[in-house]
Amino acid sequence: MTRRFVALALVLTQGWWSLSSCVSVQTTRQAETSAPGGGVAVRVFADDAARRSGTPVAGAVLGELERREGRTWRPVFRSLAPSWTVAGLTPGTYRLAFPARLDEAGNVVRLSGRPATVRVQAGKVAEVEAVLSHVPGAVVALAAVTVVVAAVFLAKWLDDHDLPLPPPPPPDLVEAVFYLTMEAPPWGWVGIADTANPAVTSHFPAAGAVVAARRPRVIFAMSEPLSPAELEAAGVTVLGEESGLVPGVVSYDEEHWWVVWQPRGELPPGDTFHVTLAADAVEDRSGNELAAPVSFSFRSAP
User: E strands within the chain?
Assistant: First the structure.
């Protein structure tokens, strides 16, 4: 009975999500901040009711921030989290898009909607709200994603140059803040990326999530592009408390900056799985590894 109910819930989830093909994005205000440069704070909501109540979506929605440089757009930041802030941005014209979401198995489902232009001003954080149209909150709650770490990208670089860390942005914005520096040349990831460690901005599933899909993809969203040739498949481990080490295939999604693990077979039901991305499993394009391993746990549905 339990499995039949879960299967029915998944079918209904897929049906409702197929209706949610449009995302609306708007800047609500410019908040003052003492952090250097400017910033963008993002919150994603399932619908207008959730926006009014201030409850971010529980689903995994891909957010992409790009900066305009001449006639091109340069990727700046990506995350699957429902709320995040990027500080230390060079003032200018940016655009924000939410082109996709993850379904209950971690597969990419495209969303429609045009990117929204965001003006970044020095000493201010642009607060942006995105609303997924036509999605009941109870359905959205079946998916999950979490922010793993509040990464301060400038920490190592500032330490190397005997400079103090920047002050934090307004504490009421979001739980995790990512500092960037845009002093690097527009072509390629150099300059600050030569010394700063890459970081995990979010992951799927969420820590503690109960996953109904039998072959879910485990995804680590990264803060910057990685070197595909340096990906160590053995550095991603999924250990079941009852089933032991789970064999899987590890890959790198260059389009989204994701490290992806997928089981070779179905996960045993009712087991708890502990996932770890080793610090030396990945390198950015300048040869920097993660500062520390990233771990979380989830359960498979009965």
Answer: 23-32, 38-45, 61-69, 72-79, 83-89, 92-102, 108-110, 116-120, 124-132, 177-179, 200-204, 210-211, 218-222, 236-240, 244-245, 248-253, 258-263, 272-277, 294-300
Bridge partners (DSSP) listed for residue 119: 93
- Tell me the two tokens of residue 191: 């300059």
Report DSSP state, residue 194. G
Backbone angles phi, psi at 13, to 5 degrees: -60, -45
Contact 221, 201 (CB under 8 A): yes
Q: What is the pLDDT of residues 51-104, one digit of tens each?
A: 888 888 887 999 999 999 999 999 989 999 888 888 888 999 999 999 999 999
∠71-75-81 over CA atoms, to 5°? 145
CATH number for the domain running over 200-300: 2.60.40.1220
The fold for domain 2-179 equals Immunoglobulin-like (2.60.40)
**Domain ranges, ordered by start, for the chain:** 2-179, 200-300
Residue 107 has pLDDT above 60, yes or no: yes
Q: What is the DSSP letter of 226?
A: B
Domains 2-179 and 200-300 share a fold: yes
For residue 205, cis peptide bond before it (omega within 30 degrees of 0): yes
Given a cut of 50, is residue 251 above it in pLDDT?
yes
